[in-house]
Amino acid sequence: MKTAQSYLYTAWKRLIAAYLLAALIGLATGTLLVNVGNVPPERIFEASTKRLSYALPAFDRGTRHGIDMGILLFAWNSLGAMVTMSFIYTAALFDPDHRQASPRWLRKVFCGKTRMKLLCYLPGCAQIEAESLRRLYVWVMVPLLGILLLGVESGLQVSTATYIFGSFRTAFIALLPHGLIEIPAFSLAGAVAYSAHLQMAARARNNQIRMVFQQMATHRRTLPIKTIALSVIGGLLVAGLVEAHITPWLMQMV
């Protein structure tokens, strides 16, 4: 019988693999859009960095107050990672047997009664009849969807930056040094919830509602959450400092 740690390790590996595959897809897509679709690379690059652009005003204010850019990047990435890890705790809000528990209004929103038909198009959802399990199944799948989005964005950035900067090597180095640390750290944070997704899959498809939520609670208690959180935070701290100080230096050396 697989342990929570083995599910965590499997989820971590799958998330890294998903990122790499999505990055390749993004790289190919960006290249095709520029060469075949004649889409300006600047437009694609802007779209692929849109999420980060929301944090730029905060970064600007922080640097004006003397805060190191590496620390600002670390704070931004850590916030996202901790939110991702919290999915394993908010999963209990989908339990229909505790709908009247506090916070009642939030549980009613999460549990719901209306069948969300769009969820049927996600892998594995069509076989799940119980709506609470269907929503839970998708909820703990979010880290996978997030890492896929991140991978596509990275691929698009590299493909378009190649034309903007005139060098594939420069575009690649802009992501590689800190990415070698950042992506495994993000994947570890995502693996906390995604490992629960892998574990619950069989019982969810058999609509074993009570067993799934009991299994989810046991899985959450068994995982070394504090150790994982410290590992993620440490990795993102190093990645932020590398991105702010080492990556620009390497780009100048190319």
Automatic annotation (TrEMBL):
Keywords: Membrane, Transmembrane, Transmembrane helix. The chain crosses the membrane at residues 12-34, 71-94, 136-152, 172-196, 228-251. The keyword Transmembrane applies. This is Stage II sporulation protein M.
